[in-house]
């Protein structure tokens, strides 16, 4: 139902019940039908309705849209030092921002990462609660974990089955799966010394903003097929707005095909819109459907969408063959095997059925137990799935004592709990296979993995990280920025004595940026969500540790472009002092929504302000994003951007242009002069194409510099000659 009509939440709730009573015929029917009343950040409700009832209520005055409740999926230490947030330095953002002190980001509460030692008092503006439930009560909260709520009515109604308490899932804010604890501790976990995963990646674990407060809103569950419903998610957003969070970190999303922003079925876009206009910065994961283009999720222009990159840490593992040749793979196996040299075989040699290809990648039931017993098995996989963990189980089930898994490039290591497992590329796998074929009795010795730091060029864009351009609004560049998301060590619920685990995904990259946002917000409390996003994008790095351009990590590596990393890899120390920012107001977002097809009536209801979209139909390209994307440049287009000076009051910036190949770019004016009375200035960029062919996207950049700051925005342009067959 859009923006709240009443300031009093009780009056809003009453209006929801009255509307349902009118539809269903009685107050009793309305009470049994309603699941949630959304009454803090926006107005709306979730209720059980038949299809005909849903169609009827859609015509009621004040209703923007009626949508079905659906289920979404999750986008499932060293990383902070790698991007420059070192707790020992007095010159970085961690120190300048007081480590995020006083900021509220919205588990496993006993984790040392949520210890409140050294934490400041709970902010007086905080209105949240510590909601009780299964193995969770108010004593689990402290000055670090200041709030916790859980929402399951939407899932319970969707599954239409009893949901009981169990060790698999807790009906409370307590985390069973580990995803929430891992992401929360990455964003704002307190210092934990000697954190490690089975002896690997040992060091000081901490979140990006170790003195920020945490509030947990549990909407995702590992019940049935698992997931997070629209109804529960929207209620969590509504409560987060009410409670007073500063930042929302959302590591979940919908896959393609995406819904238009005109369509309320994208509850993440709608919920985050209301959060953003309430001053809350929303950080979202990009999705894990890469490296295919146009797979990116969470593409709304008001959220910060995060891609995943690698860091400079690897877990090298030696494979010594019987001919004394040593080859290298990677592993995070932490068991205690000590087999020495052991028989080595290739999976196809021990197949149950020689004509069945499933033995090649060691699928369950494909291997002969008699021939596999006591041996290390080499497997070849042609795709990322099934992965090494499943193949390891298959080898173990037939008595194998180790596995070497040759696989198409796929970032992120999976743990194998029982037998050693080592991932290698096709080149190393083929060299091992050649040895097996030549040797009369091939053997190998698998060493334990070792943590190696700083020896590999990084970052690289993770192979799984979803890529742009946005399939629903290609003129909005996504992702916005990239951050570490591969083999990230963070807290998890304790299992087999381990309190930390390594996970990979854009789910892990997202809280890295949420933590950095907390630091920026602490240093600049009055900055808008758009200003913070601009600071991140315009100061990001495009260069790796070896001095070359950041590379895309995929089966066919190439230099990363803005559809892989947005502005680049996050650089938090520069983001706190960006020089200039590209700001965006609520009115700007409204004009953008007009330009992509929202009706005036729908937007008027959404924000409780009368809007006339007919005057704003050409705004889309001029939304003041810290990027410019032109999906269909036929000949000439002029784009306007506005920058606000947040550096020295008197500053002069000159423009540096790197035009996309085949495109002429002209910027007017070429110099921006700021003084006491002029802190906001606009400029126009003219793009001109002489192309006689339809082409692919080409990339460039536009940078303003005053000699100290480099305020860079990425540019993507696709020149087209023909829009339809009629033009041929």
Automatic annotation (TrEMBL):
Record carries keyword Cell cycle: no
Start and end residues of each Peptidase S8/S53 domain: 172-546
Compartmental location: Secreted, Extracellular space, Apoplast
Domain (Subtilisin-like protease fibronectin type-III): residue spans on this chain: 622-717
Entries under Gene3D superfamilies matching the protein: 2.60.40.2310, 3.50.30.30, Peptidase S8 propeptide/proteinase inhibitor I9 (3.30.70.80), Peptidase S8/S53 domain (3.40.50.200)
SUPFAM superfamilies to which the protein is assigned, alphabetical: Subtilisin-like (SSF52743)
Keywords: Apoplast, Hydrolase, Protease, Secreted, Serine protease, Signal
Swiss-Prot/TrEMBL GO biological process terms: proteolysis; response to symbiotic bacterium; response to symbiotic fungus
UniProt cross-references to PROSITE patterns, sorted A to Z: SUBTILASE (PS51892), SUBTILASE_SER (PS00138)
InterPro entries for the chain: Peptidase_S8/S53_dom, Peptidase_S8/S53_dom_sf, Peptidase_S8_Ser-AS, Peptidase_S8_subtilisin-rel, Peptidases_S8_3, S8pro/Inhibitor_I9, S8pro/Inhibitor_I9_sf, SBT
GO annotation, cellular component aspect: apoplast
Domain Inhibitor I9 as annotated: residue spans: 7-75
Highest taxon of the lineage: Eukaryota
Molecular function terms from GO: serine-type endopeptidase activity
Catalytic residues identified in the record: 116 (charge relay system), 179 (charge relay system), 507 (charge relay system)
UniProt-listed CDD domains: PA_subtilisin_like (cd02120), Peptidases_S8_3 (cd04852)
Function, as annotated: Required for arbuscular mycorrhiza (AM) development during AM symbiosis with AM fungi (e.g. Glomeromycota intraradices).
UniProt similarity note: Belongs to the peptidase S8 family.
Protein name: Inhibitor I9 domain-containing protein
The organism of origin for this protein: Fagus sylvatica (Beechnut)
């Amino acid at each position: 139902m859009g923006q709240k009509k009443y300031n009093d939440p009780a009056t809003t709730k009453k209006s929801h019940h009255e509307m349902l009573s009118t539809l269903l015929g009685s107050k009793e029917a309305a009470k049994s039908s309603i699941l949630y009343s959304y009454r803090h950040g926006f107005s709306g409700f979730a209720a059980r309705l038949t299809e005909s009832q849903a169609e009827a209520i859609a015509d009621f005055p004040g209703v923007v849209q009626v949508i079905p409740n659906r289920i979404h999926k999750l986008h499932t230490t060293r990383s902070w030092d790698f991007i420059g947030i070192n707790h020992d330095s007095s010159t970085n953002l961690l120190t300048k921002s007081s480590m995020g002190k006083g900021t509220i980001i919205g588990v496993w509460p006993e984790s040392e990462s949520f210890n409140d030692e050294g934490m400041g008092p709970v902010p007086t503006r905080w209105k949240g609660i510590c909601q009780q439930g299964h193995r969770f009560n108010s004593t689990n909260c402290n000055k670090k974990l200041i709030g916790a709520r859980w929402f399951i009515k939407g899932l319970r109604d969707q599954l239409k089955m009893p949901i009981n308490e169990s060790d698999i899932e807790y009906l409370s804010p307590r985390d069973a799966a580990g995803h929430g604890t891992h992401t929360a501790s990455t964003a704002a976990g307190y210092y934990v010394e000697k954190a490690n995963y089975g002896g690997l990646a040992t060091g000081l674990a901490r979140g990006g903003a170790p003195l920020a407060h945490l509030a947990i809103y549990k909407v995702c569950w590992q019940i049935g097929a698992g997931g997070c419903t629209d109804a529960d998610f929207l209620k969590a957003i509504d409560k987060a707005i009410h409670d007073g969070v500063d930042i929302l970190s959302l590591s979940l999303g919908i896959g393609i095909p995406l819904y238009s922003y005109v369509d309320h079925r994208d509850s993440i876009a709608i919920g985050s819109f209301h959060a953003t206009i309430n001053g809350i910065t929303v950080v979202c994961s990009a999705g894990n459907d890469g490296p295919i283009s146009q797979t990116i999720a969470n593409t709304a222009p008001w959220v910060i969408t995060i891609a995943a990159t690698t860091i400079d840490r690897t877990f090298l593992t030696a494979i010594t063959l019987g001919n004394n040749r040593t080859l290298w793979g990677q592993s995070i196996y932490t068991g205690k095997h000590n087999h020495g040299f052991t028989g080595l075989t290739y999976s196809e040699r021990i197949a149950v059925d020689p004509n069945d290809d499933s033995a090649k990648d060691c699928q369950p039931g494909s291997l002969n137990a008699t021939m596999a017993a006591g041996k290390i098995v080499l497997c070849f996989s042609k795709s990322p799935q099934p992965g090494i963990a499943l193949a390891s189980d298959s080898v173990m089930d037939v008595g194998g004592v180790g596995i070497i898994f040759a696989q198409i490039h796929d970032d992120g290591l999976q743990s194998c709990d029982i037998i050693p497992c080592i991932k290698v590329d096709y080149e190393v796998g083929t060299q091992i296979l050649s040895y097996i074929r030549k040797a009369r009795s091939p053997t190998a010795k698998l060493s334990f993995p070792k943590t190696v730091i700083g020896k590999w060029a990084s970052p690289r864009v993770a192979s799984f990280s979803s890529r742009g351009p946005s399939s629903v609004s290609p003129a909005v560049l996504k992702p916005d920025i990239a951050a570490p998301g591969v083999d990230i060590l963070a807290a998890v619920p304790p299992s087999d004595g381990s309190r930390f685990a390594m996970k990979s995904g854009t789910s892990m990259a997202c809280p890295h940026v949420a933590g950095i946002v907390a630091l920026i917000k602490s240093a600049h409390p009055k900055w808008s969500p758009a200003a913070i996003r601009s600071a991140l994008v315009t100061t990001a790095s495009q260069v790796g540790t070896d001095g070359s351009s950041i590379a895309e990590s995929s089966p066919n590596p190439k230099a990363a472009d803005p559809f892989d990393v947005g502005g680049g890899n996050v650089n938090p120390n520069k983001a706190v002092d960006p020089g200039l920012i590209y700001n965006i107001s609520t009115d700007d977002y409204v004009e953008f929504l007009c330009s992509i097809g929202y009706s005036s009536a729908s937007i008027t209801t959404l924000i409780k302000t009368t809007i006339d979209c007919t005057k704003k139909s050409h705004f889309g390209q001029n939304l003041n994003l810290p990027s410019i994307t032109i999906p269909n440049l036929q000949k000439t287009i002029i784009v306007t951007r506005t920058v606000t000076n947040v550096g020295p009051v008197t500053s002069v910036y000159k423009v540096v242009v790197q035009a996309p190949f085949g495109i002429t770019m002209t910027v007017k004016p070429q110099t921006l002069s700021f003084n006491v009375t002029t802190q906001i200035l606009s400029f126009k960029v003219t793009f001109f194409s002489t192309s006689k062919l339809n082409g692919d996207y080409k990339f460039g950049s536009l940078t303003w510099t005053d000699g100290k700051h480099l305020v860079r925005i990425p540019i993507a342009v696709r020149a087209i000659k023909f829009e339809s067959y009629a033009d041929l």
